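Reminder: ligand-aware prediction takes two inputs, not one.
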Amino acid sequence: MYNALLDEYVGHSDFFNYGYWEETTKNQQEASENLVRQLLAFLPELSGSILDVACGKGASTRYLLRHYPPEAITAINISERQLETARRNAPGCSFHRMNATNLAFPDRSFDTVLCVEAAFHFDTRERFFQEAWRVLKPGGMLVLSDILMHLDAERRRAFRTEKNHVRDLEEYRQVMQRSGFRDVQVIDATVRCWHGHYWSVVRFFHQRFLAGELDYPGLQRCLDRTYKVVPDLDYYILAAGRRG
Ligand SMILES: C[S@@+](CC[C@H](N)C(=O)[O-])C[C@H]1O[C@@H](n2cnc3c(N)ncnc32)[C@H](O)[C@@H]1O
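Here is what comes back for the chain with S-adenosylmethionine:
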């Protein structure tokens, strides 16, 4: 997550997600902001307290400051290095090093739990759903974007577990419901999120190569990282559920 070329690609915004690409979206930073906006659009109103799970370098947390006062925003991440950056990006918010599957907050602490493009890392996302349900107040909502990987990828990739495999949107809905969520919505955003990002980042790498800023082996390395996702990613989804 600390790479000079990728920093340039995201416009030094510190976002680290595929984003949500509309016809008018100009760049990755805008797409990443769109993605958080799309997730917040699941909420009937932007009020109360919010927990940003797996906040990365705090760009999503900084976006939340557009709508929430800092004292209403708490964010967690597994990496202390990323949290140091996040604290600078969103001053006044509370940051904690914590595992999403073992949240050190009392029951019924938050009105909203947000998780942008991270639950596919967790061991497991179902355990995270149970924790999110526990820390939500009754009526509170979990809103998230997530990636459903092909079973082969879950078996092959580092930091993945087969236990985390979810086949499709219907199964995702069932896992959320099994964890206690009601009014579950799961939306296929593969084209808006993954396809949009794919073409944007491939174009960026080629532009850097043609400008002489990236040599040919460098271009190949960058493209390889992107191409490797193609057979592994089945769906990119947006989802929401309410604690009854
Ligand atoms: C793709 S990044 C998304 C970061 C951020 N949400 C954003 O949109 O810019 C995934 C993040 O999940 C975090 N992460 C991975 N496993 C975690 C866990 N078990 N608990 C908390 N955070 C975790 C990583 O450190 C990383 O910051």
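Strands lie at 50-53, 73-77, 94-97, 110-116, 136-149, 181-188, 233-243. The CA atoms of residues 46 and 67 lie 7 Å apart. We will return to this case in the review session.
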